[in-house]
Amino acid sequence: MSRRTLLALLVLTLLSIATGLLISRRMASQRAVSLEKTRLAKKSAERANRLRAWEKVKPVSLTSSSLVDQLALLEEDGRIPQSEWAERVPRGALSNPQQEDLHQAIAGMLRAYAHNSPQALVEYMRARHMRLAPARRRILEASLQGQKQGSSVPMEGLSDEDLYQRYWEARGIRCRQATLLPTASQIAIWKWKHADAAQILDATAFSRLREIPEVWLGYMQVASNFAPTEPHTLIAQLRAKPEVLIADVELVIGHDKESLYQKVPYMARFWFNEAHGQWQPLMLLAAHTSGGAFPSFADILF
User: Fold this and answer.
1) DSSP 8-state assignment for residue 241
2) For residue 111, what pLDDT is reported?
3) pTM listed for this prediction
């Protein structure tokens, strides 16, 4: 066989291999696109199904006297972190005071928002031995100082209530939460048994645990302006005893008329402060249920 023939065969072989690779890559790309379209279609269908189902759920006003009783009936959800340091705790394993305070902690937070009052929120946090975190207070002060109406007002001597009141007024904050859909809401209680609090404080892990990426368009973490009073903090408790009770609550909230009564799932995480014998709010996420603007929060209310 001549050298020219061998060269021609080699070229043909290489072209065949290259063509095969291009076809394989194209098919793989098409399969990936098809799988992604299928995933998005399932996500959209699940989202639509939940939103339709929620329209049939009887709502309870966040200011109703029966709110605590409704929270006591929330369905227990088994989703907890997949970790050797996490252990599910049935609600019935909590003491009666722990259960009662947990329901009051959730109800108090919801009522504070429903009242659309900075004083109500500050008073709620104070009753749970929390106050404006110094770092967050400085941010609020700087924001007010940058606004014309606050530029000549000294901030250092203001109480938490006065500072928050001026901040709400300057930002034109309006809370629009109005109702709870109790039979669509859930609660999961678990124990974290490690001194490292990173897993507990990880908002991304919390969102995945609550299946936000699988169903919703995304989420917003509400900035935490409040912190436990020293020295009884989460970190201090874990250092003294590497064990803490956690309650994850998925609350489906209905909004007011101006927000077109939109239904939104909120994911709230509480921890049990043993020094005070109280549940304290730790984290709050709100899922995006549609492509429009979120109806309730800026980044300033928790």
Assistant:
1) S
2) 94
3) 0.84
